Amino acid sequence: MDDEMEHSDFTIGLEFLTETGRWRCTDVGTRTIAAIRLDLDHDPRWYEGPPYAIVERVFDEEDIAGCRPAPSERGYDDSGKSRLMTVERDDVAAVSPVNKSQNGLAGSLFSLSQRQTLYP
Fold first, then answer.
1. What is the rounded CA–CA span in Å between residue 116 and residue 113?
2. Which residues contact 113 (CB under 8 A, 6 or more apart)?
């Protein structure tokens, strides 16, 4: 492909795309780069750093070959929205209290709402 990127194309702060989403370059090494994945549902402060609140991933030469430049304006993909459906539920489930040493939620109850969104 003619839009594949090379190691020399990367600079700190550059945003690029892979098959898994949008990324921001956080470091450029001799043969590798490090980057964080940019998910739209995270708190924007997670992307401030270093250090970052999310994991940095290292891209080697083979990974870099699968990268392409990101458009300057971010798009929003809501293509799955048309497949959402709402199902009415009559039952309400509760999770019994658990030992605090297991997950710190001793005495907490969780319940399902009367409406649940499902993917068909």
1. 7
2. 89
Q: Return the residue matching tokens 């690029």.
A: 16
Tokens of 35: 């980057």
Q: Which amino acid is at 95?
A: V
The full set of domain ranges for the chain reads 7-69, 85-118
pLDDT digits (tens, 9 = 90+) for 48-68: 889 998 999 999 999 999 999
Is residue 93 within 8 Å of residue 111, measured between CB atoms? Answer: yes
Tens digit of each residue's pLDDT (9 = 90 or more) over 66-98: 999 998 877 655 555 566 666 676 655 544 444
Q: What is the DSSP string of the chain?
A: -TT---GGG--TT-EEEETTEEEEEEEE-SS-EEEEEE-TTS-GGGGS-SSPSS-EEEE-HHHHHT-EEPPSS-----GGGGG-EEEE-----BPPP--HHHHS-TT---B--SEEEE--
